[in-house]
Amino acid sequence: MSELRTPLDRLGVFKELSDVPSARRFHQFAPSYEGKDTWMEYRATVELSDRMAEEWTRFARRWKEHMDHQGRHHALAQPADVETWSEDLLNQFSRDRSYQHWNVIEGFYEWLKWHTDHPHTYNPFHMAVSEPDSSAREIWTRKIEKAND
User: Fold this and answer.
1) Which one of 3, 4, 30, 131 is at 20 to 30 Å from 149 when CA atoms are compared?
2) In b/e form, how buried is each residue of 34-68, taking b as 16+ CB within 10 angstroms?
3) C-alpha 117, offset from chain centre
4) Under the phi-then-psi rule, with left for phi > 0, alpha for psi from -120 to 50, and beta for the rest, what region is 31?
5) Is the CB of residue 120 less than 8 Å from the CB of residue 112?
6) Which long-range contacts link 19-23 to residues 24+ away (Cβ below 8 Å)?
7) Residue 63 and residue 57: Cα distance in Å, rounded?
8) Torsion angle, CA of 11/46/54/31, rounded to 10 degrees?
């Protein structure tokens, strides 16, 4: 079985947003992200074919639109933002297509978490997945299935 089996295994010290000290929550960093396209900074680190670059551009555009609607920068999501986006994806697309979107943006948040220029100490995608009956968990389940194919 894949290492992706348990979402809680992917979480560090902070298992849910309430565990994160106020000083480390993303909203504290909003002023330093204003006007920055953090996605493009990440995207510059990943080499893709032309077709995949177009796909990623589409996925990022949809994520950014969702986060704009939430009133937050695209690099500062809360687990609830991930859950509502996951619901939207599953309502619009197949499970596989939802997974494709989700997996790319989840990777962006993993990059943020490990990149020294960003204060991210948790991944809201993984926190959202920790809820058993969530749409995010449904997409995570597809991720596990694909990893085990």
Assistant:
1) 131
2) eeeebbebbbeeeeeeeeeeeebeebbebbbebbe
3) 18
4) alpha
5) yes
6) 20/121, 20/122
7) 10
8) 60
User: Where exactly are the structural domains of the chain?
Assistant: 49-149
| Residue that has been written with the tokens 């909203």 in this structure | 27
Tokens of 119: 């204060």
pTM of the model: 0.89
Percent pLDDT > 90 in the chain is 65
Tell how far CA 65 is from the center of its chain. 14
**pLDDT tens-place string over residues 86-123:** 999 999 999 999 999 999 999 999 999 988 889 898 88
